[in-house]
Amino acid sequence: MKRFFCHVQGTKDISYEELKALVGKSPNLILIDVRSEEEVAKGHIPGCTNIPLDTVETAFAMNPEEFKAKYGIKKPQLDAPELVFSCQTGRRSGLAIGKVQQLGYVTACNYTGGYSEWSKKEGK
């Protein structure tokens, strides 16, 4: 399997095809959906963790124990190779990446197609 890294400084975009290759297959994938809880309840990409945009900065500033207790996953390392943010169409996830980059998460990727593209291509 091709190894994927989101390690370009600045916002790196990830395509549907690249993300599809990781979902359910890569143990390193950390997929963060920054939409509201209500939006996520209507449909989401499998394996995502919901951290709404207005809480992203606070969440990623938490210590690892608090993060795991609140979100149920291990807090990503600053250089996590497959840290991907998504939303509905890529705008809010881009904003979230700007926030986490200020905290040192330089490898974060934006799934610009968002759930809108995912649901169309997955037939949902």
What does this structure look like?
The protein is α/β, with parallel strands linked by helices and 124 residues long. It is built from six helices and five strands, in the order E-H-E-H-E-H-H-E-H-E-H. Helix 2 links the parallel strand 2 and strand 3 (49-50). It is globular and about 40 Å long.
Beta-strand portion reads 5-15%
Q: List the strand order in the largest sheet.
A: 1-5-4-2-3
- The H/E string reads EHEHEHHEHEH
Give the N-terminus to C-terminus distance in angstroms. 26 Å
Number of helices: 6
Class based on secondary structure composition and strand pairing: alpha/beta
Query: Which blocks of ≥5 consecutive residues have pLDDT under 50?
Result: 1-5
> How many beta strands in the DSSP annotation?
5
What spatial form do the alpha-carbon principal axes imply?
A: globular
Largest sheet entry: 5 strands, parallel
Nearest-angstrom radius of gyration? 13 Å
Helix content: 25-40%
Determine the mean pLDDT.
91
Quick overview:
This protein is an alpha/beta fold and 124 residues long. Helix content is 37%, strand content 13%. It holds the Pfam family Rhodanese.
Please render the helix and strand layout as text.
Layout: E1 12-14, H1 16-22, E2 30-33, H2 37-41, E3 49-50, H3 56-61, H4 64-71, E4 83-86, H5 91-102, E5 109-111, H6 114-121
Parallel strand pairs: 1-5, 2-3, 2-4, 4-5
